[in-house]
UniProtKB/TrEMBL annotation:
Quaternary structure, from the entry: The complex is composed of two ATP-binding proteins (LsrA), two transmembrane proteins (LsrC and LsrD) and a solute-binding protein (LsrB).
Gene Ontology annotations for the cellular component aspect, listed alphabetically: plasma membrane
A GO molecular function held by the record: transmembrane transporter activity
Membrane topology: Multi-pass membrane protein
Annotated keywords: Cell inner membrane, Cell membrane, Membrane, Transmembrane, Transmembrane helix, Transport
Transmembrane segments annotated in the record for this chain: 43-60, 72-91, 123-142, 148-170, 191-215, 247-269, 281-308, 328-346
Compartments in which it is found: Cell membrane
Protein name: Autoinducer 2 import system permease protein LsrC
Region (Disordered): 1-25, 354-382
InterPro entries reported for this sequence: ABC_transp_permease
Described purpose of this protein according to its UniProt entry: Part of the ABC transporter complex LsrABCD involved in autoinducer 2 (AI-2) import. Probably responsible for the translocation of the substrate across the membrane.
Listed Low complexity bias regions: 354-369
Length: 382
């Protein structure tokens, strides 16, 4: 053998042992990482959703059929859409308590303006979009330019809208609107294999999810998270805080508008439709790992929270738990989710501080205040 091309025995044997050791360590690391993700606020809700769905299937095996699952998604669609809208507001560090009132306003507007005239469906949809944009602009501008806390602004907006709707309609239900309008929420494409019907509500939900994920990954979405993390730092970095937050409120009101249109289809026209939806949206968002106060969370987390919440209510129906317990359960979920997130993130901060203080390679130059951490204040939040 040519000595110029042969390797020393030590060099030939070295790669084998570390490679097998690395694979064993890699498997262990992957298992540990999966465990950490499962206990993360964003991961534990996925585990909870799977457990609840399995429990529903055990109690009612027909729930696992494709058609039943599709109808379940159709029921979740309004809640998921308002949760996605609420996500954009909460991740920026604000609240929107007017969502339920907006849903009610849109439902009652449809009942009084559309009637049985199918030709009015298109113009009324334009009116509903205009109402949603107007409410979002009022909430956003009052919060950012007038510097009134969003909790107060949206609480006032909720009361104003509710009072105006009760005055306009007399607080009574109307007959259902034209059938072509109701089909938006209750209809679908028929003759689909396996599922029989593909509801329009499911397709609308899919479109909303794609748009929301796309926005969250654009500079707009990243700026929202940065503002929720540290509004002052975002301002110094050149972010237009007032415009970005106002846009978030507009998205929230528009999502309530879409949910209202869907609810007309299978809930009818009644002043109680939409009542409490703002708290349902907040519960779903918090359950999905979005932190109250802003700066952490994802669209998919809020979506998972909405599915988990509706699955939980479905399970309670199968177990004959009174529907009157729904509000109490939502309150308990909010407290438990916020407390769990606080414990997890506090533990991470302590772990991060201890790792920095015990690292022997850390030099004084690396810990001086004159050298900021990469990524700014937002880099601390994971």
């Amino acid at each position: 053998m040519n000595s110029s091309t042969s390797l020393p025995p030590s060099a030939q044997a070295q790669p084998e042992t570390p490679r097998s050791g690395q694979s064993r360590l890699g498997v262990g690391d992957r298992i540990a990482e999966l465990g950490r993700r499962a206990l993360d606020p964003k991961g534990i809700v996925v585990v909870l959703l799977i457990v609840i769905l399995l429990a529903i299937v055990v109690l009612n095996p027909s729930f696992a059929e494709p058609g039943s699952l599709m109808r379940f998604i159709q029921r979740v669609a309004p809640i998921a859409i308002v949760a996605i809208g609420q996500y954009f507001v909460i991740v920026s560090g604000e609240f929107d308590l007017s969502m339920g009132a907006v849903v009610t306003a849109q439902v009652m507007t449809v009942g009084h303006l559309v009637g049985v005239d199918e030709s009015k469906t298109g113009p009324v949809l334009v009116v509903l979009i205009g109402i949603g944009i107007l409410v979002g602009l009022i909430n956003g501008l009052a919060t950012t330019l007038l510097r009134v806390p969003s909790f107060i602004v949206t609480l006032g907006t909720m009361l104003i809208i509710h009072g105006a709707i009760m005055w306009w309609t007399g607080g009574v239900a109307t007959s259902n609107p034209a059938e072509n309008f109701r089909q938006i929420g209750r209809g679908g494409f028929e003759g689909i294999p396996l599922i029989d019907v593909m509801p329009f509500a499911v397709l609308i939900l899919a479109a909303v999810i794609l748009l929301a994920v796309w926005l969250s990954r654009r500079p707009f979405g990243r700026t929202l998270v940065a503002i929720g993390d540290n509004s002052a730092a975002a301002t110094f970095a050149g972010a237009r805080v007032w415009w970005t937050k106002t846009a978030a409120f507009v998205l929230s009101s528009l999502s309530a508008t879409v949910a209202g249109v869907l609810l007309v289809g299978f809930a009818g026209v009644h002043p109680s439709v939409g009542q409490g939806y703002e708290f349902t949206a907040i519960t779903a968002v918090v359950l999905g790992g979005v932190v109250l106060g802003g700066g952490r969370g994802t669209v998919l987390g809020a979506l998972t929270g909405a599915f988990t919440l509706e699955a939980l209510f479905t399970l309670l129906n199968f177990t004959a738990v009174p529907a009157t317990m729904r509000d109490a359960i939502q309150g308990a979920i909010i407290i438990a989710a916020v407390a769990y997130s606080g414990v997890v993130f506090a533990r991470r901060r302590r772990r991060g501080r201890s790792s920095v203080s015990t690292n022997p390679l850390t030099t004084s130059a690396e810990t001086t205040p004159s050298t900021p951490p990469a990524g700014g204040d937002g880099a601390v939040r994971q």
